[in-house]
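Dear support,

We are seeing what looks like truncated structure output for some complexes. This example has two components. We would appreciate it if you could run it in full and send us the complete token output so we can diff it against ours.
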Amino acid sequence: KQEVTQIPAALSVPEGENLVLNCSFTDSAIYNLQWFRQDPGKGLTSLLLIQSSQREQTSGRLNASLDKSSGRSTLYIAASQPGDSATYLCAVKEYGNKLVFGAGTILRVKS
Amino acid sequence: DADVTQTPRNRITKTGKRIMLECSQTKGHDRMYWYRQDPGLGLRLIYYSFDVKDINKGEISDGYSVSRQAQAKFSLSLESAIPNQTALYFCATSRSRGQPQHFGDGTRLSIL
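Here is the complete output from our reference environment:
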């Protein structure tokens, strides 16, 4: 059974810092991996999707990497801002169409 | 207007009641999903549908049923609600397997 773990569970950093969120998964037979952002009272917003054949994806200040063989992904946020404060969720798409989520990392960026 | 709309946004009800949560989308996607989110557990898949005639059970379907009334509408029902079904429920859509899923804003359901 696929299990997705996100470390740390919570993170507090001063504005301007670069930071890394970690995601690990137990079964490397994945179709793709997706990073989401969740704001309080809101749904999930897709940030980046990495296909299983890709190593990384970039969008603005965000960069996500994927190492399928070791079962790891990282989300790098450059020059963090208070507006980046949210919960970040990692999810892997299995070949059976199921999306398996981690429990998330709660990020707080202090001004 | 939101692309994926869930109603109601909040609901408080009593044990044993029948409840329906509704989801509609304007994205034109064939695939629709229902998830629940519990603190510390992430999101778990309840049911999913790839078209009007295709309904599939997810990881935690017991106690739930769904109806795909049209391409744009996917409803989740709790036939006889129990307190451990208190959670945040999300509907999502996607165009295909390789494309991102798009989520509604969620329904916060409390069962007393």
